[in-house]
Amino acid sequence: MNSFEILHSENVRAEAQDAILVIPVGAVEQHGPHLPLTVDTEIPVRIASMLVEKLKVIVAPAVTYGARSLPQSGGGPGFPGTINIRGSVLTDYLKDVIAGYIATGFRSIVILNGHYENESFIFEALELCREEGKLEGAKIIAMGWWSVVSDGVLEKLFGDRFPGWHAEHASVCETP
To answer: The whole model's pTM is what?
Structure first.
C-alpha cells in the first residue's frame, strides 16, 4: 500500500510500521508567466510519487503554503499570486504535523522541501520536536529536492555558470 488516500483509522498504524512517509513541503508563489504558482509543491509531490514505484513509500498530503518568498531569490510579495505565511507559523504547523505522524506510528520520515525559503523553518520544527521528546524512535531526513541534483546535471545545464540554488528560481531546473 502506498497511497495515503486509502489509509484509514484501522490500517494506518499497521501500514506506518514499515513504510517511509514522505511529506512534501512547498509554497504558492510566482514562477514567471511560464510556470504555475504551485511549482514548489508539485516538484516534491512528483518526486515522492516516483519513489512509490521503488520503495514502500506513503506520500502524505503536501504542505502547500510556505515561508515568505524573498526578492533576492527571484520571488517576493510584489508578484501577483505569491501567498506566504510567517516562518513562525510554518514552524509551528510542521512541528504539529511531524509529531502527529510519529504519534500515529510512522518511524521513517522524509520531509521533501520544494521551496528554498522553507529550509530553516523545517529544521527549527524538527529541533523543537526533538527538544520536546517527540522524535523518539523516529528516523527523519529533511532535504530540498535540489540536494539530489548531481554535479554532472548542473555541469550539463550550466557549464561553469551555475548561479547557486538561491538564484535558480523559475529557471532551468524548475522549468520542464
So the answer is: 0.92
